[in-house]
Amino acid sequence: MRQYIANATGGDPETLVQMTMFRMVPWEHDACRRLPTLAERTSFRQWVRRAATGIGDAHVALILQPDGPFALCAPGGSQLPSRLIAYAAKTFSALANTSVYIDAGASDWPKDRPEESARFLMPAGIAYARGFALNSTHYASTADQIAFGTRLVAELAARGAPDKHFVINTSSNGQPFDFGEARGTHPDNAKVCATRTEVRCVTLGIPPTDDVAAPTWGLSEANRARARAHVDGYLWVGRPWLYMQADPFVTTRALLLARTTPY
Asked: Which residues contact 248 (CB under 8 A, 6 or more apart)?
């Protein structure tokens, strides 16, 4: 963790470091079939404590547990996965300069249903976190995320967690589409745009910025106002230059992403 921070900051302690933590076992579809064992729960908590020690007083924007909606499919409706996320959210939020954003899915998952995201965010410790993250592994438009996130902010406030902010992954949505519309052999490895005019394909979106309401992003006046009120930043959380957003690095994908982005 300390090495990662040193690499990201270049030794400047005022530089903001972005981290995405994906440590839950089981997770994704496996989380729908079984709950974490006692050993896995113990390992998770120990890892979180050690990671927090490694972060220390560094300035960090931390995206916690991408694909958060998988917590909704835990066997028997168990909140155990959410409670483990809450342990992490509380631990990392206690650090002096770390802002935690718990992954809440995307506008297309749970499909236009902020109440579903709120249902797992509440036991997942959203009260401890600065807010939530959207679109981490999806390709939906920034405009859709702003509208969805604003509704989720209101839903969380109604449930007793007011004044939450959010960040949006824009690494993959330069030509946006819903996850179910992905072309290619698998949505996680969706087709990369071949030209700047092709649509419904993966390319880089808005570069990382906290200038979320700038006219250059082409947002409606309503969404610019929502962004100013609720969005902390557009971040490149996803990794479309990797195979299946995971591993390994694919040079041809990365070059196409750079060549075709409208930004």
From this structure: 242
DSSP per position, 38-76? HHHHHHHHHHHHHHHHHHTT--EEEEESSSGGGGGG-GG
Q: Answer yes or no: are the C-beta atoms of 241 and 254 closer than 8 Å.
A: yes
> How many whole angstroms from its chain centre is CA 167?
7
Provide the 3-class DSSP secondary structure of residue 118.
helix
**How many beta carbons lie within 10 A of that of residue 52, not counting itself?**
18
Helices (H), the chain: 2-9, 38-55, 80-93, 114-121, 142-158, 221-230, 251-260
Q: Residue 12: which residues within 8 A CB-CB, separation 6 or more? A: none
Query: pLDDT digit string (tens) for 50-106?
Result: 999 999 999 999 999 999 999 999 999 999 999 999 999 999 999 999 999 999 999
Question: What whole-number distance in Å separates Cα of residue 261 and Cα of residue 263?
Answer: 5
Q: How far apart (Å, rounded) are the C-alpha atoms in residues 244 and 40?
A: 25
Q: Enter the tokens of residue 215.
A: 């006219």
pTM value?
0.97
In whole angstroms, give the CA distance from residue 16 to residue 117.
27
Taking Cα atoms as reference points, which of 230, 233, 181 lies closest to residue 202?
Answer: 181
Decide if 174 contacts 218 (C-beta within 8 A).
Answer: no
